Every structure is written in structure tokens, then in C-alpha cells.
Amino acid sequence: MEKLRIRKSLEKEMDLTLFQTPEYGQEKGYSQVFRTIILSRSHEEALNFLFKKFSVPDLMPNEFNGRFMGTGDIVLIDEYRGGQHYFQLKSGGWKKINRVHLR
């Protein structure tokens, strides 16, 4: 008798929260401007999804009142039991940071 293998999806549910300062270039005053839940295979894939969504005007949600995503913006990826991970957009790409940097 042949065993059937059920392949688990490689995608995980991730709760993404985007934090921005009121004006581009500020280092303090971050507040939550958007939150969504997606299925993603990796942090990099999730961050790229969010960057594209907030860099292309036609993809931005109608209810979004923030600005285009830019250097300094912070994303929280909550994987529930997998933990919380903070990333900040730097000139060279995304950098993992401690939540202490979120002011």
C-alpha cells in the first residue's frame, strides 16, 4: 500500500504592521499607519510585498492616509508563535532592528 504524503504549505500567516513618522526623514514620532495579514514564505517576501504596495500609487489602499514608503519606515512582522520581528528600511535594504528603536 502506497503512503500518501500531504505536503504542508510553505506559506505562513504573518501580521504586518507599518509604522511611519509624520514626515519623511524624522527619527522620532513613529505611529501605526497600516496593518494587514498575509500568507508569505519568508520575511523578505513579506517586506517586498509591503514595499511594492506602498510604492506604487495604484496599489495603495484607499483608506491609507500615510505617505509613500521610504527610508526609515519600520515594519513589524508578527508570526504569532514564531515571534515578532522588526525591520527598518535603510538605503541598502531592510535591516532587522530591536523593538527598542521604535519610538
Describe the 3D structure.
The mean pLDDT is about 85. β3 and β4 form a beta hairpin. The protein is globular, with a radius of gyration of 16 Å. By secondary structure, it is mainly beta. The chain has 1 helix and 5 strands; from the N terminus they run ββαβββ. It has a 5-stranded antiparallel β-sheet with strand order 2-1-3-4-5, covered by helices on one side.
**Uncertain runs with pLDDT below 50, 5 residues or more?**
none
What's the pLDDT, averaged over the residues? 86
Q: Which class of secondary structure composition applies to the elements?
A: mainly beta
Q: How large is the share of residues in beta strands? A: 25-35%
Major sheet attributes? 5 strands, antiparallel
Order of helices and strands: EEHEEE
C-alpha geometry: globular
Distance between termini? 60 Å
Helix content: 10-25%
Q: Major sheet: order of its strands?
A: 2-1-3-4-5
- Provide the gyration radius in Å: 16 Å
**Strand tally:** 5
Number of H/I helices: 1
Q: Which characteristics define this entry?
A:
1 helix, 11% helix, mainly beta, 103 residues, 5 strands, five-stranded antiparallel sheet
List the helices and strands and how they pair.
Layout: E1 12-20, E2 31-40, H1 43-53, E3 74-78, E4 84-90, E5 93-97
Structure described in brief:
With 103 residues, the chain is mostly beta strands. Helix content is 11%, strand content 35%.
